[in-house]
Hints:
Layout: E1 3-6, H1 10-40, H2 46-72, H3 83-101, H4 106-123, H5 125-129, E2 133-136, E3 140-146, E4 149-154, E5 158-163, E6 167-172, E7 177-181, H6 188-202
Antiparallel strand pairs: 1-2, 2-3, 3-4, 5-6, 6-7
Helix pairs in contact: 1-2, 1-3, 2-3, 3-4
Amino acid sequence: MAETVVFSSRRVRRVQRVQGARHLIIGLTLATAGAQAIADGHHVSWIDYVAVVSGALLMVAFVRELRAARHASGAHPHHGINWVDVFAAVVTLVEAAHLQHLGKVRLPIAYALLAVFLLAIGLFHGRLAQVRRLIVDEDGFDIRLHPWRRVRHAWRDLAAASADGSSLTLTGLDGRVTRLNLADAPERAAVIDAFMHHANVALAPSAPPPPPPPDDPLPEVPVAAPS
Length: 227
């Protein structure tokens, strides 16, 4: 029976937090400008109201994301919608609208495309979070370390497999060695345990065949005594 282990990347999490903080700064800046315009009551538009609401929602989503990451303590993050990216897309659309209002042409289009990209990432966060995964069974394994690296082998193509605390080392029948680095994955222990459990069974040396049974001695034929 196939076993699947999904794992994440600390580096990707850090990049996502930095990007979220950047979007938050932009969102709060636009929200502050929108709130000031609403308070002044001069030339107020729908953009100002959307800026205030989206900036506030982005701040709430970002704080909740930080708290969830802190309480997870290295566990795999949630696989639902990433609201930080969703509200960041709204903030980016507000910024595009502001640029268009200022008479810009190309920049609003670029920001609008970026907003669509962020919205897609946020809505499909659950699927994207499961890109890094190990599928292993009695026939072989399929592991994707990141979206651009995938390693698949049947056990019959390997001579040996070993593991340390942060990587897997595979030796092919031709002597070629492949090292899979899992140091960046908080769930590396679960990945290594699942992999080595199946590898130890599949690559275990076969027991020697039992020795053949001894030949049965020929029955003794009594010799008649001479008369």
